[in-house]
Amino acid sequence: MHVLVVGGGGTIGSTVAYTLATQHPSLEVTLADPKAERAEGHAIDLFHSRSHAAHAIGRPEFEASTLGDVSVVDPTSSPEPDPVEAADAIVVTASEPRSSDSLERGGRLSVLERNLEIASDLGEWFASADPTPTVVVANPSDRVTHRLWEASGWPRGSFLGYSLSETARIADEIARRVSAREPSNGDVSPADVYCPILGEHGEHIVPVFSRTTVDGRPVEFAESERVEILDYVRSVPYDVIEMRDNGDSSRWVTGRGISLIVSRLLEGGTDPDADPVCLATPLDGEYGLKGVTLSVPVVLDGDGVAEIVEWDLSTDERERLERAAESIRESLGHR
Ligand SMILES: NC(=O)C1=CN([C@@H]2O[C@H](COP(=O)(O)OP(=O)(O)OC[C@H]3O[C@@H](n4cnc5c(N)ncnc54)[C@H](O)[C@@H]3O)[C@@H](O)[C@H]2O)C=CC1
Ligand SMILES: O=C([O-])CC(=O)C(=O)O
Fold this sequence. Notes:
The chain is of the alpha/beta class. The protein folds into two domains: 2-161, Rossmann fold (3-Layer(aba) Sandwich); 164-332, Lactate dehydrogenase/glycoside hydrolase, family 4, C-terminal (L-2-Hydroxyisocaproate Dehydrogenase, Chain A, domain 2, Alpha-Beta Complex). Helices cover 39% and strands 18% of the residues. A six-stranded parallel beta sheet has the order 3-2-1-4-5-6, with helices on both faces. A three-stranded antiparallel beta sheet has the order 7-10-11. Helix 1 links the parallel strand 1 (2-6) and strand 2 (28-32). Helix 4 (112-127) runs parallel beside helix 5 (141-152). The protein is globular. Oxaloacetate ion is lined by residues 107-108, 139, 165, 237, 249-250, 254.
């Protein structure tokens, strides 16, 4: 199996590559980045991280001879053989560098113009290869996913815009609040919270409070609490960036979330009996929306989105989803 990480010399791309490389020792990983030397530095380090399997403490449960390679290509030099053709899954983290106006809430939109150009170029590159499931991380991820889909000519189900970190963040905040309500019951773990999030990866997130459960039981929040929960989810990634001296963004939650999605894709998909996962995919009438890409519940197979699940939403959730769609359409110039 082979995963291509486009933007693999950067923070998120290299973190995804590390997570996948250690989880799947035989996986071939290619890092595509115009900063090829930087990517090569990651590739050498990553390959050595796999070599711990040669030590007794590595306790290899696989043949050392099956260790996958970690290689580098410069996407601007028409690499041959084409790594897009070789890939079983692709992750796109290619992005303009973070600018000073990307450090505040809403900052994901500051790289819109340049990242749409990068997406158009990547789409042209992808177009000559067979459709391959592609997880899009570069911000603003829903708009970039949409542009990449349009430029590639691949089926819409090939594209999955990544927004799952928000689901992890809201679970943490809900667990804290529910624990504080009844301290005598002990702490609730975020792992016991289910609160899917639809909509934009940004200000227009749509937490589905009508389906939220703790330990499998429905849980209610007053409107004031909902506002505070939303505020936490929107703000915390920017707090993380600031705490790290305005350097890297949330590489660990993002790297782990993407690696889980790629792992499921390589295994042939998600369990159709399990809860669907919320990822951004181009819509064609689902939820009454067309010509826009935003997060909705999906079931995955080995090619990408096998099914978009249409949940019954409350009036407020539906209106919020429509507002998210409007905001995304507007910034893409689609009215
Ligand atoms: N969807 C999400 O939840 C998250 C999205 N992000 C976004 O992911 C993107 C990447 O973030 P970082 O890794 O921190 O940025 P970074 O600046 O460390 O890495 C971006 C990499 O893309 C490369 N690149 C630029 N143009 C390229 C092209 N045409 N082809 C291939 N590579 C190209 C750059 O050389 C650089 O190495 C950003 O847009 C960031 O906002 C980051 C975290 C979470
Ligand atoms: O703005 C960023 O690069 C970080 C981001 O999207 C996130 O962590 O959700």
